[in-house]
């Protein structure tokens, strides 16, 4: 494994594959070191800004040993749109890749299972939920898995800013696969989050090397502009759009609430600012059309909630504005990472109004159901199963809370019950079928308060970031790196 001639061979092959399939003459940052580590059979944790080339760190290893068709790199990815875009890009480069997910009809899924079992594909993208399907596991068992890549790895951690219940089964999935060499990749993971990721994967911290790229992107101008109310913010937005050094590219303006987005859209229309809107209440085909218009350059400005951006790989985004306060440094950093991928000067501006903190505090409450809520939900599922099946989540939500139709405690609680095997699945109708007793931990408010406290700490870090008088990029690096275990 440590033969120096083998290292040189890996380096030479990796560079040749980079040039042949991707058209680049050299690797960026630590990409080559990461590739050599996983090719030598060792685990890696990669923290690299959005758009800086994380995917190459598992795509190049997938192309080694091309004459041996049975080898496979499996990528766990949280978003269907993201994997579709990745596969489309790889296919255009002549790389045999596919995805298998719920967007496919049954016939197409079975065809892909069959080809997977027969040795087709060098890279396969799936969500962790795919491991609930016996036919997928059977097809996968026919292949020699050389590398398991976990994309958006912060989803593994229960403290990650975008936690997904099935990601918590990574250790079980790795065991099913024979504990293969694993590379975990994300743009955002604090030291605490990284340690939780290692534990969830079942890999000792001393067996996995951290490659932390940092956020030293000189072309990004990070600004925090104090604002007071809507009119002040709209004035700031209009002024930023007019800044000459950031003209000629695309713009994303982020909002926390749909109603705020719509209010600002009306105000910008009155000022003659052409734009489109993207949020979760729009029909899927409408959202897809907006994304396509933005990606093609047909429209330059999009007002969006954080539902927009994952999988958006557009080079000339000149401005990213947060018109409302993000809930955490992690989500803020993910979103500003979409700016300036062409290395041209780009503006990342946060319009900071202290009143926005109340919105994020409400989100934290909704993301952390208490013991009483879990108890009432479990009683509803066990004592009224027919009504739950007949009338669904909206009926359940009406009986569990009367505060707001946007209160998403029910979705959070359902996801957590699924993770712990209490219900059959995370979505209707499976989630209405109770499989086990409610764990004692869900009746313990002390236990449940731990995550809530961490969410509050992450929001407080945003306040500290806003009040930082020194180098804000240094603040971000220190927040994520901590006492680094970097290789």
| Percent range of helical residues | 40-55%
CATH topology of the largest domain: Rossmann fold
Shape: globular
What quaternary form is this?
single chain
Unreliable spans are: 1-8
CA radius of gyration is 23 Å
What is the makeup of the main sheet? 7 strands, parallel
Taking all residues together, what is the mean pLDDT? 89
Can you characterise this structure?
The chain has 487 residues and is of the alpha/beta class. It has 3 domains: 4-212, P-loop containing nucleotide triphosphate hydrolases (Rossmann fold); 220-360, 3-Layer(aba) Sandwich (Rossmann fold), CATH 3.40.50; 367-443. It contains 18 helices and 13 strands.
Task: Fill in the keyword field for this structure.
globular, Rossmann fold, 18 helices, six-stranded parallel β-sheet, 487 residues, disordered N terminus, 13 strands, alpha/beta, 3 domains
Short description:
This protein is an alpha/beta fold and 487 residues long.
Secondary structure blueprint with pairings:
Layout: H1 4-22, H2 31-39, E1 43-47, H3 56-63, E2 71-76, H4 80-92, E3 97-99, H5 106-117, E4 123-126, H6 134-140, E5 144-150, H7 170-176, E6 182-186, H8 191-201, E7 208-212, E8 220-226, H9 229-241, E9 250-254, H10 258-270, E10 276-278, H11 284-296, E11 301-304, E12 317-322, H12 329-336, E13 346-352, H13 357-366, H14 371-383, H15 385-400, H16 409-419, H17 445-467, H18 472-481
Parallel strand pairs: 1-6, 1-7, 2-4, 2-5, 3-4, 5-6, 8-13, 9-11, 9-12, 10-11, 12-13
Helix pairs in contact: 1-2, 2-3, 5-6, 13-17, 14-15
């Amino acid at each position: 494994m440590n033969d120096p001639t083998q290292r040189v061979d890996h380096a030479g092959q990796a560079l040749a594959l980079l040039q042949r399939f991707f058209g680049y003459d050299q690797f960026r940052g630590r990409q080559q070191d990461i590739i050599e580590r996983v090719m030598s059979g060792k685990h890696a944790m990669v923290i690299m800004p959005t758009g800086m080339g994380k995917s190459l760190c598992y795509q190049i290893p997938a192309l080694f040993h091309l004459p041996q068709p049975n080898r496979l790199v499996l990528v766990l990815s949280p978003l269907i749109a993201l994997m579709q875009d990745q596969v489309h890009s790889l296919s255009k480069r002549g790389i045999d890749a596919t995805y298998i997910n719920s967007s496919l009809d049954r016939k197409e899924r079975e065809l892909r299972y069959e080809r997977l079992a027969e040795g087709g594909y060098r890279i396969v993208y799936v969500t962790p939920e795919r491991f609930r399907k016996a036919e997928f596991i059977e097809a996968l068992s026919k292949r020699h898995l050389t590398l398991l890549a976990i994309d958006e790895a912060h989803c593994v951690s229960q403290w990650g800013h975008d936690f997904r219940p099935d990601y918590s089964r990574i250790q079980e999935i790795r065991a099913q696969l024979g504990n293969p060499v694993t590379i975990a990749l994300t743009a955002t993971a604090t030291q605490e989050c990284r340690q939780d990721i290692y534990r969830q994967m079942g890999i000792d911290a001393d067996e996995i090397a951290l490659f932390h790229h940092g956020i030293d992107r000189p072309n990004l101008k990070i600004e925090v502009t104090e604002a007071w109310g809507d009119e002040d913010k709209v004035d700031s937005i209009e002024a930023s759009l007019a800044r000459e050094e950031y003209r000629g590219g695309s713009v994303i303006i982020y909002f926390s609430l749909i109603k705020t987005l719509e209010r600002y859209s009306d105000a910008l229309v009155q000022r003659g600012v052409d734009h489109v809107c993207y949020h979760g209440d729009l029909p899927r085909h409408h959202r897809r059309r907006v994304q396509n218009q933005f990606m093609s350059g047909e429209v330059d400005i999009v007002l969006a909630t954080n539902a927009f951006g994952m999988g958006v790989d557009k080079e000339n985004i000149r401005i990213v504005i947060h018109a409302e306060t993000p809930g955490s440094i992690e989500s803020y950093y993910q979103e500003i990472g979409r700016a300036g991928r062409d290395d041209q000067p780009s503006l990342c501006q946060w319009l900071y109004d202290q009143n926005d903190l109340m919105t994020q505090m409400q989100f934290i409450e909704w993301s952390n159901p208490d013991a009483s809520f879990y108890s009432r939900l479990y009683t509803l599922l066990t004592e009224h199963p027919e009504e739950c099946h007949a009338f669904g989540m909206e009926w359940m939500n009406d009986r569990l809370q009367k505060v707001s139709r946007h209160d998403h405690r029910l979705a959070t609680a359902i996801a957590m019950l699924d993770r712990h095997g209490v219900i059959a699945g995370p979505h209707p109708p499976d989630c209405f079928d109770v499989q086990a007793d409610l764990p004692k931990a869900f009746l313990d408010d002390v236990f449940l308060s731990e995550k809530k406290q961490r969410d509050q700490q992450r929001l407080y870090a945003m306040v500290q970031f806003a009040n930082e008088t020194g180098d804000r990029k240094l603040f971000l690096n220190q927040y994520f790196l901590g006492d680094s275990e970097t290789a």
